[in-house]
């Protein structure tokens, strides 16, 4: 081994030791860098619209996105346009079964590769780190996985998102009959890892996944269905829990009309204690401050029974989501493969698409009606289809962003993005005839199709003046995404203009400011709220000079460059 190779080995070992010291989970793997990850040292990813694929039905419909390209590059670009704007990320990544079903540095990884798990972890780690930056503080990420990488992915997710933000692991029965030709145990399920960006800020929606469960919740108020559960923590009735949990034994005072509660004595309030009908002492189910929070949220009900005041807590259907999902509609073949075949006419176009109804339930549970949903392993487009179907069902206004490559790995029938994902979403939006010849009505929505493009630079940490000018010329569409102004109006050698229903976007990308007054007069004549990006060498050089009641000034390209520098550090 020569000196240079020895130095590299020692450097790798030192980095692994440093990583181990700062990571109490102990997950250390050789970070075998992908070409695409190294690429952003000397090339920056931007986006370019393929306008021939645009579907613009109505300006009041949601604007959805398909981004064709390597998902690492797509996520990098989205970190400028959508940082902290995503409500839910759902992904179904390659499962790393050893069946040569995914590529690393353009080569398939098979079961004989001694670095198979390291490569997969490195591959996932780079993308999950970028994805985390996109989530709102209230957001969720859900990841489907099978047993091959369940344990490693769980530790990786704990490391990136924090064990304290783990919501749980759901078992999804997607093939009740089990897989054929399996040795020993025949898998009938996969797993769904669910994490919050910040658990204390996140919450599930008040929805029902299993309609049969609603029968148990026959009481109703202005916030939906509920049933009552006793607020005393019961035991077997033979002993008191007071000694074991003294903090859960405290008086609660209830007003005469049974509608108000207090932890301190008040006139007209009656004292109640956690005592069962048999007179056995128990403890309350929560601490005092949590009880008051439940009162504030109108979750506590008091009733007088046999001369005593009994407290109950309202239980919503959405509070009883179990971690074992068994609906027949989660079957991958019947509600994944067959649905795709009905739309595109060929069952062999894409292997193992997820059940449409599984993804609908994930989106229903983890988003509100105006959410933005991202899938950066979009494949056949099930997540986009699910968002459209759910919007139709509950009159929602959710948007989706689908990222997928355009690899031709479906027996020569075309790339994934152009031949599967896009046609599927287009058909669902416009309507189609299924394989039985039945006409299926469309679900109207808007769709924009982008491709990643690379801009050459000398080096990310030291970008030249020429590179800055070039970036400013090419940044129009990624800025339009950031400002949600996707309709292109005009572009000349001085400026570019985009618009939406509510505002305009203008980008002045020349160092020479000769034509800038002309552009500003044009924008003022239009008399619409406008964000004006002006080329500058530093920050905020022109904000005070050109801002007005209808024009807000931002600068380029420095904020874009800062994002890419930060991603490079990640």
In short:
The protein is an alpha/beta fold and 570 residues long.
Explain the overall architecture:
The structure is a single chain. The protein is 30% helix and 26% strand. The chain has 570 residues and is of the alpha/beta class. A ten-stranded mixed sheet has the order 1-23-2-20-19-3-6-8-7-18, with helices on both faces. A five-stranded mixed sheet has the order 24-25-26-27-28, sandwiched between helices. Strands 9-10-17-16 form a four-stranded antiparallel sheet. A hairpin with a 5-residue loop joins strand 21 (432-433) and strand 22 (439-440). Helix 9 (382-394) runs parallel beside helix 10 (416-430). The two termini are 31 Å apart. The mean pLDDT is 88.
Overall mean pLDDT score?
Answer: 88
Question: Order of strands across the widest beta sheet?
Answer: 1-23-2-20-19-3-6-8-7-18
Low-confidence blocks of residues? none
Major sheet size, sense and barrel closure:
10 strands, mixed
The Cα radius of gyration reads 28 Å
Beta-strand content estimate? 25-35%
Derived structural class = alpha/beta
Q: Count up the helices.
A: 15
- Let me know the number of strands: 28
What percent of the residues sit in helical stretches (DSSP H or I)? 25-40%
Distance between the termini: 31 Å
The coarse silhouette is globular
